[in-house]
Specification:
The chain is mainly alpha-helical and 109 residues long. It has one domain. The protein contains five helices and no strands. The chain has helices spanning 6-33, 42-58, 61-66, 74-88, 94-106. Helix 1 crosses helix 2 (42-58), helix 2 packs across helix 5 and helix 4 runs antiparallel to helix 5 (94-106). It is globular and about 45 Å long.
Length: 109
């Protein structure tokens, strides 16, 4: 088995932490929405996952912990999905999407 560098281990750990935190956030949103969660498509889910993951990378951990994903309003959720789609198709730059996504999420603190 090939040797894995400490840098690569760090990258993998970081990626796993991001995925774990994003999934936990989406799970809170899903539980809050209940049956209404089924109204969202797989593409909506992927866009939401993307924008939340990008915000997780750049936001301070204390601020992240203060976000109440259960308090996201329907309009905020749709706006996050829209930002995620725009970031994925590069119709807006990642920095702008992250700033706007952070603003939306931090409203719940």
């Amino acid at each position: 088995m090939p040797e894995v560098s400490k840098t690569e281990i760090g990258r993998r750990f970081f990626k796993l932490q991001r995925e774990k935190n994003v999934e936990a956030a989406i799970d809170k949103i899903r539980k809050t929405l209940g049956p209404d969660w089924k109204l969202y498509t797989q593409g909506d889910y992927e866009a939401l996952k993307h924008i939340i993951g990008e915000v997780w990378i750049y936001i301070d951990r204390e601020k992240w912990e203060a976000i109440s994903f259960t308090k996201l309003a329907g309009g905020d959720l749709r706006e996050l999905i829209h930002l995620g789609r725009q970031a994925l198709d590069r119709s807006i730059d990642a920095h702008t999407a992250i700033e706007k996504g952070s603003e939306i999420l931090l409203r719940t603190t």
